[in-house]
């Protein structure tokens, strides 16, 4: 067995890389994956008939560099949480159509096909048919403001 490993060092390193990658699937910590890539680097050296000491050094160097330089950024990105806005936060920035005049005290808008209670974010008044922009959601009320260019929208749409 030892003789076969010495004669087929590239296959041994490749087998080690596969085993490490498979065990990584169970742990999902990205540590063993870095060592698997190091083993692949060593397999390349062994496949090119490089000396055993060079394969071992390359395995150690590549694995440690990946472990300390690459893994932290990957883990941070994976643990950062979702970047997709969901729920009411998704409505901020959306445009709505005024269906009942909106003042600082109240009104109604059609937002993503639903009727919402609304109020102006300042002392503005928005007439029926105007397009407004949602600046925040306060409970069940859309706080709206005038977009850069507001034009009345026909009620036929």
Question: Keywords, please?
Answer:
single chain; 157 residues; alpha+beta; OB fold (Dihydrolipoamide Acetyltransferase, E2P); 2 domains; disordered C terminus
Description:
The chain is of the alpha+beta class and 157 residues long. The protein has 2 domains: 2-79, no CATH class; 87-145, Nucleic acid-binding proteins (OB fold (Dihydrolipoamide Acetyltransferase, E2P), Beta Barrel). The protein has helices spanning 2-7, 9-27, 31-47, 52-79; strands at 95-100, 108-111, 114-120, 131-138, 141-145. The protein has a 5-stranded mixed beta barrel. A hairpin with a 2-residue loop joins strand 4 and strand 5 (141-145). 22% of the residues are buried.
Mind sketching the topology for me?
Elements: H1 2-7, H2 9-27, H3 31-47, H4 52-79, E1 95-100, E2 108-111, E3 114-120, E4 131-138, E5 141-145
Parallel strand pairs: 3-5
Antiparallel strand pairs: 1-2, 1-4, 2-3, 4-5
Sketch the major β-sheet: 5 strands, mixed, barrel
SS field, number of helical segments: 4
Report Rg: 30 Å
* SSE series: HHHHEEEEE
Q: Could you say which overall geometry the principal axes of the C-alpha atoms support?
A: rod-shaped
Task: Please report the total strand number as a whole number.
Answer: 5
Q: Mean pLDDT, rounded to whole units? A: 88
DSSP strand (E) fraction? Answer: 15-25%
As for the number of domains, it is 2
- The low-pLDDT segments are 149-157
Query: Could you give the order of strands across the largest sheet?
Result: 1-2-3-5-4
Which range best describes the helical content: under 10%, 10-25%, 25-40%, 40-55%, 55-70% or over 70%?
Answer: 40-55%
